[in-house]
Amino acid sequence: MTSYGDEATVRGILTGTGDTWAVVGLSNNTSRAAYGVARVLQKYGKRIVPVHPKAETVLGEQGYASLAEIPFPVDVVDVFVNSALAGEVADQAVAAGAKAVWFQLGVVDEAAYGRTRTAGLAMVMDKCPAIEIPLLG
């Protein structure tokens, strides 16, 4: 199986890329994976920015309907949408000036991975930061 994010890239994004994470697909639905992962990221000192069509305030943070509407720089775009939509989000992350893109477990788009890396961003696919960040110790 191909790995889309070696340990050094994972560690780099989690420790060195910056602490503002846009979480695409995050809403107040506490049963969704995005909610639990965002809570873990907060616990580790990350500022989460909910991105969802509802633009809800989630976990105390103002939400936005799209990446383009966020009025401040975002370091990492964490993508909780299905693979068919993820490539468009990765392109939006590049356009928004993010430093890295993270596709969650089960989200894979090889073409988007190539475009995002070519644009100079770090990228991880098919991994979960909430699983990886406690392993950094």
Give an overview in words.
The chain is α/β, with parallel strands linked by helices and 137 residues long. Helices cover 35% and strands 15% of the residues. The chain contains five helices and five strands. The chain has helices at 7-16, 33-43, 83-96, 110-118, 129-132; strands spanning 20-24, 47-51, 76-79, 100-103, 122-124. A five-stranded parallel β-sheet has the order 2-1-3-4-5, with helices on both faces. Helix 3 packs parallel to helix 4. The two termini are 26 Å apart.
What is shown here, in short?
With 137 residues, the chain is of the alpha/beta class. It has five helices and five strands; from the N terminus they run αβαββαβαβα. The longest helix has 14 residues.
Keywords for this entry:
single chain, 137 residues, alpha/beta, 5-stranded parallel beta sheet, 5 helices, 35% helix, globular
